[in-house]
Structures
1.
Amino acid sequence: MQLPAAQNEVQASYDVFRTGPPPFIGSTATKDELLKHVSTAKLLHLSCHHLFDARAPFLSFLKLAGKSGADFLYMFEVAELKLAAELVSLSACNSAHSHIESGDEQYGIVRAFLAAGARSVISTLWSVEDSSASVFFTDLYRRVLRDGLAQALKMAQLRLLADPRYELPNFWAPYVLSGHWNHPLSFSDENDASH
């Protein structure tokens, strides 16, 4: 259950933007800390575990610090948030999974973040490997202000593909972008990013 590269991943995102509070890592990455900052954050980077439940999609969750179910961030809770986030990055396994109900209603954690007000969400189609995720997001964030979201995503994937350690598609191909793909990101205000 450990994610040893997650600390490097969230620290790298903070080092690029240098806005908002320092990253919440390990035991400080709690639901309470997230909820204190989530409504004003322009960037949310969540490097954690995700569990999707197709039978009860509203009970799908992101596992934050803590051992009880009350410490998890559930899909139904995300949908009730009021977000100002330009980008939510879900560096968690299978975070793009969703369930389609009759009438084409889609239920999943990505849809919940978009419904809560996030402009864009980066998620994963399958399980991601910890160290490659760190390389991917570090490169993505270095490019995103200059190149925009879609181009930064493409270039970060190509960088993984060019690395002999990560050239197989299971490393570089799971990342997908939902929402506004062509808008420029701006994280210039203080207290506008959370990790």
2.
Amino acid sequence: MAEHWLLNFLEQEQVFALKAAKNNIIYQFKNTELSIETEKVLNTEQTVKFKGFIDRVDQVDDVVRIIDYKTGRVAPEKLKVQDMETFFTRKDNKEAFQLLFYQWLFQQSNAYSGGKVEPAIISFPVLREGVMGLRIPNSENQSLISEFEKHLIMMIGEILNDQTPFSKTPDKTICRFCDFKNVCNRYS
């Protein structure tokens, strides 16, 4: 299966590169497995380091694309962002969250030189979908990233607040994939 996916992916990449050249589109590979980190001050006592590994960075004309490869199936509708309040409370948007996080992290780094950035996913089981970007209705990308940072910092601050008790999730199906299931013994 991996060989099949890889051959299809390379064929798709070749077709895109040829079309880009034919249509005078500048297509440039920038980086792979780009490790990026940044620190943010939460309050006078806490600084948090954020880190990520971006699978691929390329550029199509004046747009820098941050691409994450997925071996699992990702449906395009999972990459929709309505508003940050809803976004940070939904449980089914992990791929969209990861893309926004990577875009935010990238724009904090030395690798970012300004300009438009578009995060996207290539899902190998649905290669026919091509490069699937975030769908952000009625929003300017930069204001969305600022709003994302604000909510991210609030969420991390809440997690690190020792006055906020932790509680188990009411959805026990989540426990099946939890790294700590052997510690709490909730899921067998």
